[in-house]
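Hi R.,

Here's the input for the NAP complex you asked about:
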Amino acid sequence: MAPTTVTERDARHLERAIELAATARGLTSPNPMVGAVIVKAGRVIGEGLHARAGEAHAERAALEACADDPAGSTLYVSLEPCCHQGRTPPCTDAIADAGIARVVVASDDPSPKAAGRGLGILRDEGIEVETVEGQLAVAARLLNQPFRKHARTGRPLVIFKSAMSLDGKVATRAGDSQWISCEASRARTHRWRSECDAVAVGIHTALIDDPLLTARVEGVARQPRRVVFDSEASLPLTSQLVRSAHEVPVMLVCSRAAKRTSTDGLRNAGVDVIVCTGQNEAARVDCALEELGGRGVQSMLLEGGPHLAGIFLEADEIDEARMFIAPIVVGGRGAKGAIEAEGVELIGQAPRALATDFERIDDDLLITARLREW
Ligand SMILES: NC(=O)c1ccc[n+]([C@@H]2O[C@H](COP(=O)([O-])OP(=O)(O)OC[C@H]3O[C@@H](n4cnc5c(N)ncnc54)[C@H](OP(=O)(O)O)[C@@H]3O)[C@@H](O)[C@H]2O)c1
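And here is the predicted structure with NAP in place:
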């Protein structure tokens, strides 16, 4: 999209469109979050957002909410309007039919069926189309990182989450990790689980902690699919995950070396067993992400443990990190750090993330850092 200059007033309306979009966080997958504002003669006459997959797109919602005839007005929208027939008809049709004179767009839609086509159609209809760059464009793109990565690569966005002590340990030398972070930090993790399409752990974490991996916090609208990386398909049928597989889906990623009796037993218990090819764990992570993406998983909260996180890091598949640091000192020569990988020899070789947020949560510090932007 070739950017143009927008006025301060334009920027304010786009900001509002982005703000509206964000109110549907965790509710729109596999669709993006989108917000729209319609302004006529300097006055906002309609606002809308895409509230849930299957429901009206933001542009149509804003048109429906209009308090005045939208003919001749300006539409501000956080994402390029769609031009294809999906579960709902193309927004480009609705915009043209309503007689909108000008459309200001904050970010592109990288899906092959969009990628600028919507803007071209609007221009062909004689509508003035403007795009922005700078902070507003970045904010609009950051809103939809899972959607954007999935549209470009077919894989989920991977968000690595960990809770560590002041001395960088995520468990004691005996493997105990409950609980390093405070209750409010754990509630935050539950909120993130509900916002992601999937939550993943390695088999050792599943065996040691026997987690449920569901989102257990007030007001949660949906549960993530739960994924266990388990080469040998050794997750016990008595584990909390397997016992609850009929209520909230569980997927298990194993290698071809897994015994047929184990995979059959898990399948019979309701687990979706994904057999991944690849000579090593990194290659199998690669295969697993393709498979998960193909099953519609656009975002995955990777909750460890350190071994699995190390494989994801070496496969260059961590997009964002959210690290809680708690004011306790665990010590222990054998106690693990957040990521166990081969690592670099020189600090200068270490991958550097962009720290995007620091937040105090009771006694913990939460650092959010982005390794890649889509
Ligand atoms: N504080 C925290 O935030 C936190 C979070 C999570 C866990 N923990 C702690 O971390 C410890 C466990 O972590 P860990 O590093 O020992 O183990 P882990 O990362 O939970 O599991 C590692 C195992 O995952 C399997 N795996 C890895 N890649 C795979 C792939 N591509 N496909 C299939 N399976 C794959 C392998 O199992 P195979 O051996 O079968 O190949 C590997 O040994 C526990 O003490 C837990 O309490 C702490």
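One thing worth noting: The chain is about 30% helix and 20% strand.

Cheers,
M.
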